[in-house]
Design brief:
Layout lengths: L2 H12 L1 H38 L4 E6 L18 H10 L3 E16 L2 E10 L2 H6 L3 E4 L4 H6 L3 E4 L1 H8 L8 E4 L2 E9 L14 E5 H9 L6 E6 L5 H15 L10 E5 H44 L1 H9 L4 H38 L7 H27 L3 H6 L2
Length: about 400
Amino acid sequence: MPPLLKIALRAIMRNKLRSSLTILGIVIGVGAVIAMVSIGQGAKDLVAKQLESMGTNVLLIFPLSTTHTATRGAIESHTLTAEDAIAIKRECQDVNYVTSYIMSNTQAVFGNMNWSTSVVGIEPDYQNIRNWDLVSGRFITQQDVKTMAKVCVLAHTVRKNLFGALDPVGKWIRINNIPFKVVGVLVEKGQSPTGRNQDDVILMPYTTVQRKIMGVTYISIIMASSTSEETRFSAIDQISALLKQRHRLRPDQEEDFTILSQVEYASTIMETSRTMTILLGSIASVSLIVGGIGIMNIMLVSTTERTREIGIRMAVGAKEKDILLQFLIESSVLSTIGGVIGIVFGVTLSKLVSIYGGWPSLLSPVSIIIAFLFSNIVGIFFGYYPARKASRLDLIEALRYE
């Protein structure tokens, strides 16, 4: 072991409590950075999976001209029709699947069980757009749509709350005192990126929801999917041109619909998650800097206490750079020990948050390495001033120091 490292370790061990408290600041800083970044990465990974579960290449066509995210006024507007959806599917070559979509809140009843949920009117293509598999039974068919059949498909949450362990396929539920036959059960999807429970819905033919439940003739939105990600923009152009033609809009007239791409929506959410990860990491880095200030404080005290020792070392031949290096090694050893313990603390903390807090976490080796290197940089940066001050002591004054 190099002599300067031995001297540094000996000095650290001589004041164990003070060294431990100094290291504690670095431990908390490194641990906080690792935990915060892992939570941020976990949230980002969860959002990516949720977006994937919502279906790829999905296009949402809203009534009225709206902003990118807001649909103010669109709910009351009914400029889209089921015939628009049929025309899109028939005439837009880069569109793969299309469904009319209408939704209403309702109360579903089975025996003595009841559950407040949403009933969603769709067409058979909805299953392909959302990539939503069945656990049992079948999905809504085109024949169901044509005949306004009183059939429904249950998502996981509704099935669990109405039927428990029973298989609901073939049984009847009541909505608005109207009996509907359960023909299928969907696999669990989980939460959407906006936090909505995707499994708390009952799917029916949109014609059934219109006439039997809501008593209306309009649809809320149209959902579609492009044939591939590469044809997404051309599909949007085709849909836009077709709807302008069908709605008899002049070139200078404002569109009475808005087309949102799921990919753009996903990009916005992913960017938000990335920003949150950076923000959390930055906030946690502040504690690491505070730990570095602690190192500087202790090193200043140490150099003052050891002024005579420094003078003796200078008297026996130690040069300015040797004194500088000795105290830099001491601060580096403190930050390195704190960094190693901080990694263990950060990994443990992220696991505990994930287990007991229910927050997803994803440990990143890169973030661990960066946090560790940053702790070493902090140690050297904040230890430099005390080390330089010690190395520039006057030999005579240092030897006379009591």
